[in-house]
Every structure is written in structure tokens, then in C-alpha cells.
Specification:
Length: about 140
């Protein structure tokens, strides 16, 4: 499981052109899944990424520099806001279910699980995202 998380983080570094490189050691990466299993997230103090398996919406067009899958999830880094994933891997299945009404934090990043989807935010600057089968929102 830890190796899968490290591979996810490593792929995220190389795949997302707007992503600041993460430190080499990632023993503190954790993951969770929505109770429905449709959303999976990985989180550490440097970033949170949530991917979605089934959705009723389409992401915006990919950036020209994206050479991998695009729009299957959203990334948030402290102080940087949120953007769509450009990566050849997935955060799906990265951890145990996070019950509706519960939250998970790493540093200033906090994610909340609700029946309406997963919301992750930087608690210091307020930027974040919501992702669900029905919609997404970057804020």
C-alpha cells in the first residue's frame, strides 16, 4: 500500500506541469475513499489529490502540455489553489472509507466527506475544491 502511494506521488510530480515537486520521502502520505467508493484521495502536508471513477460532468479542456490522462481528479497544494490532474495514475482505492461527516487533515489541508461529495480546502487561505458525481467546484 505504501509503495502504491509513493508511486502515485512520484507520478504526480512528473505528470502535472503546474505542480511544485514534492520532497523525496513520503512516509506520511495517507489515503481515503468515499463511502460509495467513487472518490479516492491521497493527502500529505504538501498536497491533496482526489480522483473520481464515475462522473456526470466534463472537465475543462486539457492544457496543451498535458501528455497523460486529464480531468479524472483535482489537486490542491497549500497556498496555490486547486487544478485538474494531468497524470497517468490514480488516487482511487488509496485508503479506507472516510465516513460521511468525518474529516481528514494533513498540515493546513483538510478534506470532509459528505453524501454530496468530498470537499478539500487549505484552512489558511480558503482555496479548495469539491468533487462529486454530479459536479465539481474549484474555489
Amino acid at each position: 500500500m505504501v509503495l502504491a502511494r509513493l508511486a502515485t506521488a512520484a507520478a504526480l510530480i512528473g505528470a502535472a506541469p503546474l505542480l511544485t515537486p514534492l520532497p523525496a520521502a513520503h512516509a506520511d502520505i495517507s489515503g481515503f475513499t468515499s463511502p460509495s467508493g467513487n472518490i479516492g484521495c491521497i493527502i500529505d502536508v504538501d498536497h491533496v489529490r482526489c480522483d473520481i471513477a464515475e462522473r456526470d460532468w466534463a472537465p475543462p479542456p486539457p492544457p496543451t502540455e498535458c501528455r497523460f490522462d486529464y480531468g479524472q481528479g483535482i489537486v490542491l497544494q497549500p497556498g496555490r489553489g486547486a487544478w485538474f490532474v494531468c497524470a497517468g495514475d490514480t488516487a482511487l482505492g488509496g485508503g479506507a472509507p472516510l465516513a460521511y461527516g468525518d474529516d481528514f487533515s494533513a498540515g493546513v489541508l483538510r478534506c470532509e466527506s459528505e453524501p454530496s461529495g468530498v470537499t478539500c480546502r487549505d484552512v489558511e487561505d480558503g482555496h479548495g475544491f469539491t468533487i462529486s458525481r454530479q459536479a465539481y467546484r474549484l474555489f
